[in-house]
Description:
Elements: H1 6-23, E1 38-41, E2 45-46, E3 49-50, H2 55-62, E4 67-71, E5 76-81, E6 86-91, E7 97-103, E8 109-111, H3 121-128, E9 134-139, E10 144-149, E11 154-159, E12 170-175
Parallel strand pairs: 1-8
Antiparallel strand pairs: 1-2, 2-3, 4-5, 5-6, 6-7, 7-12, 9-10, 10-11, 11-12
Amino acid sequence: MRGFRLPARAVFLLVVLALATAVHGGEVEPPRSGSQDVPVVAGQRVGSITLRMRAAEMVAVLGRPERVDRYPERNILSYDWKSDGYLVSFELDSGRVRVVGVYGTLSRFVTDRGIRLMMPLDRALRAYGTGGGYARVDCRQDKITLVRYHDLGLQFAAAYDPGQPIHGRIFNMGVFRPGALRGEGNPCVTR
C-alpha cells in the first residue's frame, strides 16, 4: 500500500486487531456514550484534518507526530500520530498531502455510510458498491486488501489472512483528492 510502511507495521497491527476482534467476539461496538464520532469525509477530510492542510497545520492540531518516515524512492513523507490513530502521507518534494488516513481499532472514525474501523470489508463494499472508480488489490505478501474509490477519494485497507479472525477486517481508512492516486500503479509494498 503506497504511503504506508506495511511490512513491519502490518504484523503489529494484525496482532493488535486479532486480539481486539477476539475480545469483541468479532463484532465492532459503536463508540460508548461520551465519545465523539470523527467523520471520514471522502475526498476532503478526517475530522478537522483536511487534504488542504500543510504538515505544520496538522502538527498545530494533533501535536508533534510520534513517528516520521521518509521514502524518497516513492516520493513519500509519512507522519504517524499512533496514539490518535492518524497516519498522513505527503509528497516528499512538494509537501502536498497524499492521504489522510486513520488506523487501528478505534471505532470513533466513521464514514458517511456508517463504516468504521474493524468492520468487515464486505460491509464497506455493500455500502459503497463497485462504482466511483472502484479498484481492489489483494497484496497477499503484505497480508492486505486495498480498496480504493478513485472518484470519491476514499480507501479501505483490510487484513488479508484467510483462516484468521482478523481476515477481511478494515484496519485503515483514508481520504485523498479524487483521482489523485489513480496512476500510481501497484500499491503493494512487497512486489
